[in-house]
Each structure stands twice: as C-alpha cells, then as structure tokens.
Amino acid sequence: MSVPPVLKIALPVPLYRYFEYLAPVEPAFEVIRVGVRVRVPFGGRTLVGVVAAKSRNTQLPLHKLKTVLEVLDAEPVFDSELQQLLRWTADYYQQPPGEVFSAALPALLRKNRPAASASGMVYQACASHSAVQLLKRAPKQRKAFELILEHPEGLDAENMGASMTRWRPAVQALVNKGLVRRAPYEQVLPKTPHARAQPLTLNPEQQHAYELVRRNLHKFGKYLLAGVTGSGKTEVYLALAREVIDQGRQVLILVPEIGLTPQLVHRIESRLNVPVARMHSSLTSGERVRAWQQARSGKAQIVVGTRSAIFSSFTDLGLIVVDEEHDASFKQQEGLLYSARDLAVYRAKQLSVPVVLGSATPSLESQHNVNLGHYRRIELRQRAKHAEVPQVKLIDLRSRPVVDGLSSELVQAIRTELLLNHQILLFLNRRGYAPVLLCHDCAWTAECPRCNTHMVFYKNQNILKCHHCRKQEQAPAACPQCNSSKILFLGEGTQRIEDRLRKIFPDTSLIRIDRDSTRGKNSLQDKLDDVRKGKYQIIIGTQMLTKGHDFPNVTLVGILNVDHGLLSSDFRATEHLGQLIVQVSGRAGRSLHKGKVLLQTHQPEHPLLNCLLAHGYRKFSEEVLRQRKNFGLPPYSYMLLIRARAHEQDLTHRFLRDIKTSVQQNDSSGLDMYGPIPANLERRAGMYHSLLVVISTSRSAMRKRWTEYIVQHPLAKRVRWAIEVDPFETG
Ligand code: ADP
Ligand code: ZN
Ligand code: ZN
Q1: For atom 27 of ligand 1, which residue has the closest CA?
Q2: Mean of the pLDDT values across residues 393-422?
C-alpha cells in the first residue's frame, strides 16, 4: 500500500509540537518545498503555518489526518539555515515551534497572502518638485504631493493615512493628473541615502580592532569590542561594514531600540552609500514586509534592526554586529522569550561569519566567555576625541540637608556649570512627582488596588497613577482613612526635580525627558535634537537618556539616586547598576570640555560601588563575577524560571509546587529547584505572580521537556504560565 505524503507543519498555537497534514493534490508533493507557507484547517478555523518537514510516513491513523487547503508560496519564506535557527530557538528556549516560526515572519505574511504580493502597492511621484506650482489652488493635493516627493522609495496607504486625514481623493486627483503613480512595491528600490559624510581616519586602537576582525572575515569568530563610552566603536563597525559590503555581502547591525538611537541609524546611512533596511517595532506592517523582502532579496545591503531582526532572511550575510550588547532590550521580556544577542552568536556560527558584540559595559556573560577563551576581547581604552572619560565623585547624602532630592553640593555644581554656559544632565530613574503619598496623621498610603505597589503622584494633574497597570485616579484632598488634610509626598520623581530646579534657577531653560513627556511619534527625537542644538541648559531624564546619545556640550552629569539598585534583590541588580552608572557618566565631557559626574547616595561605603569608581568597570565586573561564582549563579550555572500567574494566589503556588514535586519524583538529578516564591511585585493588575527557579551546572540536565510536566497538570489551563530560559531578571 502506498504511504500518503505528509507535511509536518509549524502552526502558531501554544502547543509544543508540529502538526501533520496530508499534502494537497496540487501542487505535487515533490515540488512543495520545506519552508513554504500553507493554509490548513485547525479546530474550526484556518491557520497559516510553515512546512517544517516532508515525510512518507505517519504514526497517526490516516483518517485522522486533514488535508492542507492551500500552498501559499513557491519559494520558502525561510531558507534551510533560518529554519534550523528557528527550530533551535524553539528547542533551546522551550517555546512552541509554530509560535517561533510565526514570530519570525512579518505580520502581513502571517496572513493568507502570497509573499510576492504581500508588500502591496505604493505611491510614487512621477513629476519633480516644480509641479507643486500646479497645485496652488488645491492645498490638500499639494500637501499629499509634497509628502510623496519626500519618499522616493514610495509611500503605502498606511503611511499616507498616518500623515494625512482623507488623503485618498487628493492622491487620486494626483494620479489622474499624471503627477503620481501607483506601483507594485517590487518595482521600487529601497532608499539609498546620499553618503554625506566622509569616513574618519581610524586611530591606532580602532585600526587594531578593525584589522583583527577584517583578517578573519571569512570565518566564524566571536569578538567582544569593549570600548569606553565615546571610544569610537561605531567607527569600527562602519569600517568593517564597508569591507563586507565591498565584497558584495550583507551586514546585520542589531541595536537596542531604534527610537532611542536615531543618531546611530543616521550615521550608518550617511556614511555607507548603500541601501539600508530598518527593522523595528514602529514600522507599518507594509514597511515591515518590504524591509524583510529587501533583506531577503539582497537589495538592502545593510539591515539595522532591533531584536527580532535576528530572524531576517538574507541572500549573503557576511557580518553581524550587536551594539550595546549588554542591553536588556535584546532579551525579549514577553511573548516569545529569547535573547537576540545569543541567537546572533548562533547564527554567525551557522553562517561562518564574525559576530562583533560591542559595549562600554559588557554583560557578565560575555566577559565570562572572554575569560573562558570563547570570545576574543578587543579594547578601546581612549575616547576618540581627545576627551577623557570623566571621574565620578560620590556625594554622601547621610545626614545632609537634601531638598526635593537635591543636595546643596549638587546644586552648587549645577550653578557653576550654568555660569560657564555648559549643559547639565540629571538622571533619575523614576517618573512622576512623588512615588508615595502618605497621611501624616494615620500613616495611610495610596496603594494601587490591583497591584502591591504605591501609586505615583502627579502634581500638575493632581492624580495618582500606577506604573504597573493602567489604574489612574484623582488624588484625594484629605486622607480617605482619617480625613486628615496633612498629606505628605515622599520621595522624588523627575517632575519634582524639575519643579525644584525651576524654582532655584528660574531663568534657565530646562527640559524633562521621560516616558511621560515623550508620548508623540517624533517627540523624543525632536527633544533630543533640541538638546543637541543647545536649546536647553538643564536636562532631566530617565533611563531613556543612557543609550548612546552624544550631547557634546554636557559637562556635568548628576546621578540623583542609585540606592534602589544597591538594595534590590534581583541577582543582576548590581551588574545593571554598574552598567547604568558608567553609561550615564559617559554622557559627560564628550568633546572639548572636561566632564564631571556627581553621584548621590546614602551608601557611599558600598564596596562594589567603590570598586567601580576606583578601578573601573572591568574590575567591577570581575568582582561581581566572583560573587556569582560563590553563589553558583549564572554565568557559572544555567537558570530557568517557570512563571505562573492567576487571580488566586493559592493556585499559582499549588501549581508550581506540584510541578516541582513531579520533576523531583521523576528525574531531578543535577537540578536545584527553589520555590515557589512570590515574584518581586507579587500582585500586578489583579493577578498573583509566582515563580519556580531552577538552577543547574549542567545544560543537559536542564534540557528536559518541562512543558510535558506542565501541560499534564490539571491547573495548567487555569493558570497562565511561561518558561523562561536564561532569564534576564528573577523579579
Ligand atoms: P562609541 O560608539 O564608542 O560610543 P562613537 O563611535 O560614537 O563612540 O564615537 C564618539 C565620537 O568620536 C563621535 O563623535 C565620533 O564622530 C568621534 N570619533 C570616533 N572615531 C573617530 C576618529 N577616528 N577620529 C575622529 N573622531 C572620531
Ligand atoms: Zn490618615
Ligand atoms: Zn496597578
């Protein structure tokens, strides 16, 4: 009896397996390629999945198999290497393979459309700017035409809609007049920026770094480019990219968050005269699929993207760069949990190309890999522009007068720099006015009813907001418990600092940059531009300002409070604090003037803090590594978390305890299991969060089928759970 042809398909459902379907009559089984998308019936719906394997046998009874409804592509959407990467990702991170495959596709391709036409139609100008004259009496058409002129690469309907209301009649009129045409996107080339900037001559350290990698471009190599802030790491990436492009190959540059680093993208574009595809979360779905196609077709020689760009297809990828490799944003925190940095290393190995991880503050994992001889460390010790890396000075806050979070010493230093007409950057990682509202008479505090946390007070609007859920309410005029009107605001957020400084320096231009003040689309970018242009003298900001921004005129950086990081229970807290201090400090004195950094703390004797300031980040990281080793924590062991959340606290605990017991009864050799323990913030948005922490020195002991233990449990359907391999935080 002939065995029917079977396709194994990765479907976007939260199940940890592939699904078998009978191949359709058309096209013939032989011509269906692994990696193409198909449409299949699934539980009363139809889903789009990807063919992961073809087979001539099945364990299932034939009558149980359904037939594929349609094969959507002739060419695979993932080549065989990318499929292997995706399978490995699913396996290593214990994620459902179909969800990994699906997450790797641009959203439009997850739907039922052929890849070739998914990118749709775009509008392009077919007349020059002088035609604007003809549109004097039609302002709407004129606006639309100017918009389209600004985008020689073409604008799609989604883009038009985002920039103009009721644009369709105007654009149709332009098409009728022959000024604009509607074309399939494939006929349009990606944008090639004009190379406006000349390459810089590399200094000896940069040259050395460049040569080391360049000599080994044709093989797998892992490099940690550890260069102090402002040492010119980007110049090294650019020089290497130039070399790779000249060989006709492509380059992938992963960056933390494009919105936060517009300058880097701009620098790449203005230096390398080749088509660049950008991939990040604020693209429209049309833009995303086009960027994907440009990378896959080889039309884009450079792809600059955030973490998910690691799953792009390329024709010939020759180099991977991960800028700011220590950054938390490379680790996906929800949904599909993976580390783009670690996948970058895997992918480079697959393709036999170098991967360059760059940072002024390398992650302890990468430093550990250097110590083990797995990565080659290349150092840039000097700043590129004859400026020195600033010294950090501690201000002991204990028993000192501190008003609204500002010590008099810091205020005095600000005053001095203002007189010299320099810029000052003040860093505080807390938004709002005050984190706690307290009744002086009965000690009532404003807590979020849905989370175990205080609600943050916003003075201007007189409201309370929870930063963990969307809860927002009017601030009470009197204590809801005892009716006293003596309500105190405890602690400081950026708005309180802003208020205070406006009082002390009423004639100084001042700007606050945090998530509350940068909601609009280009708002952050505009604010950063204004800062660079010198429009503001004092800049108050949060974490947003730590990443790679170059403000040449900033001479004083004030770090207002780091005590929270010193006291946190998360095992990575000290590492992150050290990185933060070095990165924020790195914003000072980046050009002509010498920089100064003042750090306020209640713990001036903290040994790790002192080690960092006295001996620098490398010594600090070795010290923190030693502590991790003593405690058997990563990178000296592997860690896996099982997270659970539910509306009842008891459920998550019972669920995790049972899983722990059943693993222990079966096979827990080589594993240490802790918990269930409540998460850092146990109650969030009305749900209770708990976790089970698994630690092992053996990767293979760890790689058991955790999901099988989990899905068998009767509570698995009532509790939301997730497995996190190599977690970034244990909170
Ligand atoms: P990093 O990425 O290490 O923080 P950048 O690449 O941003 O450093 O360089 C810091 C500054 O130094 C930038 O303004 C850059 O233009 C300048 N720079 C870098 N390399 C050189 C060089 N070889 N000659 C002159 N200026 C340089
Ligand atoms: Zn009270
Ligand atoms: Zn809340």
Answers
A1: 384
A2: 91
Mean pLDDT, rounded, of the chain: 88
The number of the ligand nearest the C-alpha atom of 236 reads 1
pLDDT above 60: residue 115: no
Q: Are residues 423 and 569 in the same domain?
A: yes
Nearest ligand 1 atom to the CA of 323 is 2
| Buried-state track 503-527, b at ≥16 Cβ within 10 A, e below 16 | eebeeeebbbbbebbbeeeeebeeb
- Helix, strand, or coil (residue 703): coil
- Measured from the Cα of 227, ligand 1's closest atom is 3
Crossing angle for the helix pair 364-371 and 617-631, nearest 10 degrees? 90
Same domain, 397 and 530: yes
pLDDT given for residue 652 in this prediction? 93
Only one residue has tokens 């959340």, namely 645
Question: Taking 60 as the threshold, does the pLDDT of residue 18 lie above it?
Answer: yes
Q: Which residues surround ligand 3, an ion (CB under 5 A)?
A: 448, 450-451, 466, 468-469, 471
Report residue 715's pLDDT band, with 50, 70 and 90 as the boundaries. Answer: confident
Closest-CA residue, ligand 1 atom 5, reads 232
Are residues 623 and 642 both part of a single domain? no
Q: Is the residue at 459 inside a domain?
A: no
Nearest CA to 268 among 236, 298, 292? 236
For tokens 């460390």, the residue is: 377
This prediction has a pTM of: 0.88
Supply the CATH number for residue 99's domain: 3.40.1440.60
Residue of 234, 265, 386 with the most ligand 1 atoms within 8 Å of its CB, for mutation? 234
pLDDT at 347 over 90: yes
Residues in the chain, overall count: 731
Q: Is residue 642 part of a domain?
A: yes
Same domain, 267 and 333: yes
- The tally of domains found in the chain comes to 5
687 inside domain? yes
Closest ligand 1 atom to residue 201 Cα is 23
At residue 83, what is the residue type? Q
Q: Are both 429 and 338 inside the same structural domain?
A: no
Question: Among 202, 206, 235, 584, which is best to mutate for testing ligand 1, by the most ligand atoms less than 8 A from CB?
Answer: 235
Task: Report whether residue 233 contacts ligand 1, using a CB cutoff of 6 Å.
Answer: yes
Query: The CATH number of the domain where 208 resides is what?
Result: 3.40.50.300
pLDDT tier, 406 (very low <50, low <70, confident <90, very high otherwise): very high
Residues 622 and 511 in one domain: yes
Residue 675 has pLDDT above 90, yes or no: no
What is the C-alpha separation between 177 and 620, in angstroms, rounded?
Answer: 67
Residue where one domain finishes, among candidates 66, 88, 117: 117
Picking from 692, 275, 414, 631, the residue whose alpha carbon sits closest to that of residue 406 is 414
Q: How far is residue 555's CA from residue 572's CA, in Å, rounded to a whole number?
A: 30
* Same-domain check for residues 715 and 577: no
Indicate if the pLDDT at residue 417 is higher than 70: yes
What is the domain extent for residue 15? 6-117
In the predicted model, is pLDDT for residue 241 greater than 60?
yes
Which residues in 367-394 are b (16+ Cβ under 10 Å) and which e?
A: bbbbeeeebbbbebebbbeebebbebeb
Centre of ligand 3 to C-alpha 432, Å, is 15
Same domain (yes/no): 234, 321: yes
Determine the pLDDT at residue 168.
Answer: 82
Instruction: Give the pLDDT mean for 504-513.
Output: 94
Among 160, 187, 214, the domain boundary falls at 187
In a domain, 474, yes or no: no
